[in-house]
Amino acid sequence: MKSGGSFQPATRFGALFLAIIATTGQAHAQPARDVVSEEALRQQVTTAPNLRSQLSSKARPLTSPAPAIESSLWKNSIILADGETFTLVPVGAILHLPVELRTRVVAKPQGDFTFWPSFLKRNAAWLAAKEVSLTLSRGNAQEANALLKSLSRDPRLVVATYKEGPITILEPATASSGANRTTP
């Protein structure tokens, strides 16, 4: 600052504020909004459609039959059951199935459906999940061999999971199928 001038910051702000108001034309008060009377508001509410009438006009009863058990979800899934509940895992997700647990894999659902996390928690004594990498799920033979060796003595049925959900493990590609493949 120059000597002799003692312009205070609060004064500068006030001057700036007045300059902005003067240039934008905001010095005049804004008009107040209209206020709706209670009677007019009640009339608007009575003429507006209520939820029941909206639902009856938009909602329609289900006319199509339930999907057949032969649908693609069922075709591409394995049913695991414990006698009271069952869950679905994708084909190729079972990493290890001991002989004594083969009765847990069923052809038709028995009991109530349960999502995988609940089914796993409920049946932790005979069922286990093994988190796998995406490279393994895509058929990496080296990772698959190491994993299967580590699971060979596990007494539980082991399902491959990725981010806690069952995932299919693809078979490793054979050398002959790779030779026929062309790159774009």
Salient structural properties:
alpha/beta; four-stranded mixed beta sheet; 184 residues; disordered C terminus; 36% helix; 8 strands; single chain
Could you give the topology of this structure?
Layout: H1 9-24, H2 38-47, H3 51-58, H4 72-75, E1 77-81, E2 85-90, E3 94-96, E4 105-106, E5 112-113, H5 116-122, E6 127-131, H6 134-137, H7 141-151, E7 157-162, E8 165-166, H8 175-180
Parallel strand pairs: 2-5, 6-7
Antiparallel strand pairs: 1-2, 1-4, 3-7, 7-8
Give a written overview of the molecule:
The protein has 184 residues and is of the alpha/beta class. The chain has a domain at 72-166. Helix content is 36%, strand content 17%. It has eight helices and eight strands. It has helices at 9-24, 38-47, 51-58, 72-75, 116-122, 134-137, 141-151, 175-180, and strands at 77-81, 85-90, 94-96, 105-106, 112-113, 127-131, 157-162, 165-166. The strands form two sheets. A four-stranded mixed β-sheet has the order 4-1-2-5. Strands 3, 6, 7 and 8 form a four-stranded mixed β-sheet that branches. A hairpin with a 3-residue loop joins strand 1 (77-81) and strand 2. The radius of gyration is 35 Å and the shape is elongated. Residues 178-184 have low confidence and may be disordered.
